[in-house]
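Quick one, tokens below:
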């Protein structure tokens, strides 16, 4: 007897995330693309999140359209070209192009 097809549900994704202790399963990262550059996305490092937090405390941050960022998320995704940061809020990535935070060139190699 053939095994039933695996259905993909939010719960199955969250279980996979919890089991791997990663922000997103690799197959999801393989699908997601940066809406500004079209490059793939990677989970932002704790170092990058810390640098953004420091910059926020010193001089504030703005998003792509110049609006002030109200808080720095504790998780995020960064474009492979190192130019854009997207916050992840309660496990959901905010991939709206205008909400992206443009990264300084010095952050490019540190994501």
């Amino acid at each position: 007897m053939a095994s039933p097809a695996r259905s993909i549900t939010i719960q199955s994704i969250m279980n996979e995330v919890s089991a791997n202790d990663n922000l997103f399963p690799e197959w999801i990262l393989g699908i997601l693309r940066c809406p500004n550059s079209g490059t793939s996305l990677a989970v932002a490092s704790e170092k990058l999140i810390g640098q953004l937090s420091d910059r926020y405390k010193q001089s504030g941050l703005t998003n792509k359209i110049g609006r002030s960022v109200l808080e720095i998320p504790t998780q995020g995704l960064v474009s492979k070209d190192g130019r854009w940061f997207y916050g992840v809020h309660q496990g959901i990535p905010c991939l709206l192009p205008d909400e992206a935070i443009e990264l300084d060139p010095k952050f490019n190699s540190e994501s």
